[in-house]
């Protein structure tokens, strides 16, 4: 069996110092007490970070000035610095390149729709899954992100929405609410399992303990780490699982998604069914349609057959028009081929739609902006 560079819990090299968002409610109280402060200061700090979305000590007027600077320095160290933000789609898509404390680069993409605002976040800097058509996979894995580095992407985007920095449906900037989170940015979330699950707790715990976003509005995407999918099922959360399948046959998937050499399609779909049965949520199947590679009619038929067998009605296929990366040999399938593929999957008894694509002119495929530096 082919050896793969898979990391479930990378060394802590480069991780930032502890942050409020790394800690549970009890751990925050203990950390504040260690600093010689009353434990209720932890709730005040949490309220500023998770509810008021601020890390500015000057705004924390309910905390004595002599304490707030030290508390912020110890429990809210700077995590992410914006390198640049680029926008397109009339300003409704905003991609941000962040630099972590050690120079690591990562990305997030905020997309505003008439009825929701969705943030695509990174869970790792780079990715070790080595999928050849993905910009992040081409660059390899730098390191895992800390829980707080993941959460801080969400806090920053929530502040952008609240402060009206993105246009609404009428094209005019107006305040809104961040409603949906997708772990579909840089990295394989389930390869940074412990910190990703902790981040989901912080994102979804009610304010002021967390950011208060519904678990049902969070999607975790994976290339198919079957044991970790089953472990996620045991968490008994209501987040949606998305599996990046990209082809229904093991022979091609061994190349497109090298982790398939360890956990083939049958095993991945069995784990996905376990998650669906436990959570009661439909599983999303992500399928990047690549010209003359995985877009054949027989693959559409086989995809529907396999998904109907394993997941029955507990599945929905998202066909994703490939966003080509510079110099790549991979290209998106022509629209007539895409339409026929979707038609055949639907005809096979499995719900299938084409995902809305945004941001091609701003390198919005994960990893592209970081690759540009």
From TrEMBL:
Amino-acid positions noted as binding S-adenosyl-L-methionine in the UniProt annotation, renumbered to this chain: 187-188, 221, 244-246, 323
Protein name: Probable dual-specificity RNA methyltransferase RlmN
Record text on cofactor binding: Binds 1 [4Fe-4S] cluster. The cluster is coordinated with 3 cysteines and an exchangeable S-adenosyl-L-methionine.
Cofactor dependency: [4Fe-4S] cluster
Functional summary from the UniProt entry: Specifically methylates position 2 of adenine 2503 in 23S rRNA and position 2 of adenine 37 in tRNAs.
Radical SAM core domain mapped to chain residues: 113-361
Biological process per Gene Ontology, one example term: rRNA base methylation
InterPro entries, per the entry: Aldolase_TIM, Methyltransferase_A, RlmN_N, RNA_MTrfase_RlmN, rRNA_lsu_MTrfase_RlmN/Cfr, rSAM, rSAM_sf
Similarity section: Belongs to the radical SAM superfamily. RlmN family.
Note: Reaction proceeds by a ping-pong mechanism involving intermediate methylation of a conserved cysteine residue.
Record SUPFAM superfamilies: Radical SAM enzymes
Pfam families hit by this protein: Radical_SAM (PF04055), RlmN_N (PF21016)
């Amino acid at each position: 069996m082919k050896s793969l560079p898979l990391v479930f819990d990378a060394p802590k090299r480069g991780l930032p110092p502890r942050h409020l968002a790394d800690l549970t409610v009890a751990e925050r109280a203990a950390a504040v007490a260690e600093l010689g402060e009353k434990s209720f200061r932890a709730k005040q700090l949490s309220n500023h970070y998770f509810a008021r979305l601020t890390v500015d000590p000057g705004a924390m007027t309910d905390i004595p000035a002599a304490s707030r600077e030290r508390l912020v320095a110890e429990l809210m160290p700077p995590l992410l610095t914006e390198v640049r933000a680029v926008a397109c789609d009339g300003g409704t898509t905003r991609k941000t390149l962040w630099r972590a404390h050690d120079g690591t680069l990562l990305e997030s993409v905020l997309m505003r729709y008439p009825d929701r605002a969705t943030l695509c976040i990174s869970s790792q800097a780079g990715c070790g899954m080595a999928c050849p058509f993905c910009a992040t996979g081409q660059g390899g894995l730098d390191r895992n992100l800390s829980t707080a580095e993941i959460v801080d992407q969400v806090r920053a985007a929530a502040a952008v929405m609240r402060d009206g920095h993105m246009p609404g449906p009428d094209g005019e900037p107006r305040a809104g609410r961040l409603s949906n989170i997708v772990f579909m940015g840089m990295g394989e979330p389930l390869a940074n399992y412990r910190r990703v699950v902790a981040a989901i707790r912080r994102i979804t715990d009610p304010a002021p303990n967390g950011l208060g976003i519904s678990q049902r509005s969070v999607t975790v995407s994976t290339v198919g780490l079957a044991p970790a999918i089953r472990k996620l099922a045991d968490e008994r959360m209501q987040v949606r699982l998305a599996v990046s399948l990209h082809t229904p046959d093991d022979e091609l998937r061994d190349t497109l998604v090298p982790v398939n050499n360890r956990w083939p399609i049958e095993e991945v779909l069995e784990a996905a069914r376990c998650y669906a049965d436990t959570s009661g949520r439909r599983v999303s199947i992500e399928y990047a349609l690549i010209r003359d590679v995985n877009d054949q009619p027989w693959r559409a038929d086989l995809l529907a057959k396999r998904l109907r067998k394993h997941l029955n009605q507990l599945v929905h296929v998202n066909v994703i028009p490939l966003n080509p990366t510079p110099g790549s040999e991979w290209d998106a399938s022509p629209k007539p081929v895409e339409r026929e593929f979707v038609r055949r999957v639907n005809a096979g008894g499995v719900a299938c739609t084409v995902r809305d694509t945004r941001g091609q002119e701003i390198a919005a495929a994960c990893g592209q902006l970081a690759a540009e530096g």
